[in-house]
């Protein structure tokens, strides 16, 4: 089972890339009442029949791992969201892409920790494939709203590549500096 | 940090690398991900490799986070490819084991026997390995 909200996000990003998406948008919104995440991709999408089956932990397409009988990513997320009164929605159009939305109430005891978002957003852009990722993290409380936006292409433009240890660690530092900024303003 | 500052840091690091003429270019570490890997802590393993490699100035190694390698029972799994060493899939690689792989496998050219799950022929692995 996944530990943090960030783990769920990375699992969904893996799904998008496996669905041949080359554009992934991730929006994370934190407020006093909940944390919500929406993820949209332009992958191959799913029809209604498939959409109903992905909720079943004993369903997998079997393409990547012939003979395997489980597909746990989405069922983990649904279970986690439902057990603490959160929301899970998925919409998909074959040939166009998929959109997932989920949220957790901030004050429920079973709400998973958000995790280190600097690491999570780094992981979203550091997958070894060619794709664009657009990330938005926004925090709003009684005193105002702060946000930042990062794209994978601007990181590649600045660093040349995202495979070496140098580049990956610079991405982590870059994300951490953004996180420190908005978390510092939060309270 | 701004994108300009990020670019400047990259230039600075690049110059340091050019001076040292690092020979690590062909070393590749692949960290298995997927649902099983994530649940077992593969993201921490990936971060541990990045930290430990940088601390030891092995900054030109390529580190990739990929999907499931097919050994879900032994996640987090890691494949290490480098000249002069057999390609190995290590299993149960947590933060501490990741750092051990950097020191033993990559820097000292010795296998981390207790965590081998695939690839080298049986006669290479010392007694007690899996």
What are the defining features of this structure?
heterodimer, A: 187 residues, alpha+beta, 6-stranded mixed beta sheet, 6 helices, 6 strands, 27% strand, B: 130 residues, 5-stranded mixed beta sheet, 4 helices, 5 strands
Structural category of chain A is alpha+beta
User: Can you give the helix content of chain B as a percent range?
Assistant: 40-55%
Low-confidence stretches of chain A: none
Helix/strand-derived category of chain B reads alpha+beta
What is the number of beta strands of chain A?
6
Terminal CA distance of chain B reads 46 Å
Helical proportion of chain A? 25-40%
Number of helices of chain B: 4
Shape of chain B: globular
Overall 3D form of chain A: globular
Give the strand line-up of the largest sheet of chain A. 3-4-2-1-5-6
* Number of DSSP-assigned strands of chain B: 5
Secondary structure tally, helices of chain A: 6
Radius of gyration of chain B: 16 Å
Return the average pLDDT of chain A rounded to an integer: 91
Strand order within the widest sheet of chain B?
A: 2-1-3-4-5
Largest sheet of chain B: 5 strands, mixed
Q: How confident overall, as mean pLDDT of chain B? A: 85
Task: State which percent range the strand residues of chain B make up.
Answer: 15-25%
Distance linking N and C termini of chain A: 31 Å
Largest interface chains and counts: A-B, 40 and 36 residues
Give the helices and strands, then pairings.
The complex is a heterodimer of chains A (187) and B (130).
Chain A: H1 5-18, E1 23-30, E2 34-41, H2 48-53, H3 73-83, E3 87-93, E4 97-105, H4 117-125, E5 132-141, E6 144-151, H5 152-159, H6 165-186
Parallel strand pairs in A: 1-5
Antiparallel strand pairs in A: 1-2, 2-4, 3-4, 5-6
Helix pairs in contact in A: 1-4, 4-6
Chain B: H1 3-20, E1 28-32, H2 34-40, H3 42-55, E2 62-66, E3 78-81, E4 88-90, H4 95-107, E5 116-118
Parallel strand pairs in B: 1-2
Antiparallel strand pairs in B: 1-3, 3-4, 4-5
Helix pairs in contact in B: 3-4
């Amino acid at each position: 089972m996944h530990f943090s909200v960030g783990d769920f996000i990375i699992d969904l990003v893996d799904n998008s890339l496996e669905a041949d998406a080359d554009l992934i948008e991730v929006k994370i919104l934190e407020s006093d009442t909940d944390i919500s995440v929406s993820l949209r991709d332009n992958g191959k999408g799913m029809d209604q029949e498939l959409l109903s089956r992905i909720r079943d932990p004993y369903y997998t397409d079997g393409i990547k791992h012939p003979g395997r009988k489980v597909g746990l990513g989405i069922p983990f997320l649904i279970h986690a969201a439902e057990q603490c009164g959160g929301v899970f929605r998925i919409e998909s159009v074959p040939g166009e892409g998929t959109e997932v939305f989920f949220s957790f109430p901030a004050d429920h005891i079973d709400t998973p920790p958000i995790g280190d978002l600097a690491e999570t957003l780094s992981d979203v852009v550091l997958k070894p494939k060619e794709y664009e990722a657009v990330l938005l993290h926004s925090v709003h409380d009684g005193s105002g709203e702060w946000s930042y936006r990062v794209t994978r292409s601007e990181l590649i433009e600045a660093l040349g590549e995202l495979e070496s240890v140098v580049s990956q660690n610079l991405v982590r530092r870059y994300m951490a500096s953004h996180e420190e900024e908005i978390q510092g303003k939060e309270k | 940090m701004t994108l300009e500052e990020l670019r400047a840091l990259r230039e600075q690091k690049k110059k340091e690398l050019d001076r040292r003429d690092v020979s690590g270019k062909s070393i590749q570490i692949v960290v298995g991900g997927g649902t099983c890997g994530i649940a077992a802590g593969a993201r921490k393993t990936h971060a541990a490799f990045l930290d430990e490699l940088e601390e030891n100035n092995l900054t030109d190694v390529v580190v990739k986070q990929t999907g499931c390698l097919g050994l879900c029972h032994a996640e987090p799994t890691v494949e290490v490819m480098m000249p002069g060493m057999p390609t190995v899939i290590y299993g149960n690689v947590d933060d501490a084991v990741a750092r051990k792989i950097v020191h033993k496998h990559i820097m000292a050219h010795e296998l981390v026997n207790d965590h081998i799950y695939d690839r080298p022929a049986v006669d290479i692995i010392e007694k007690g390995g899996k």
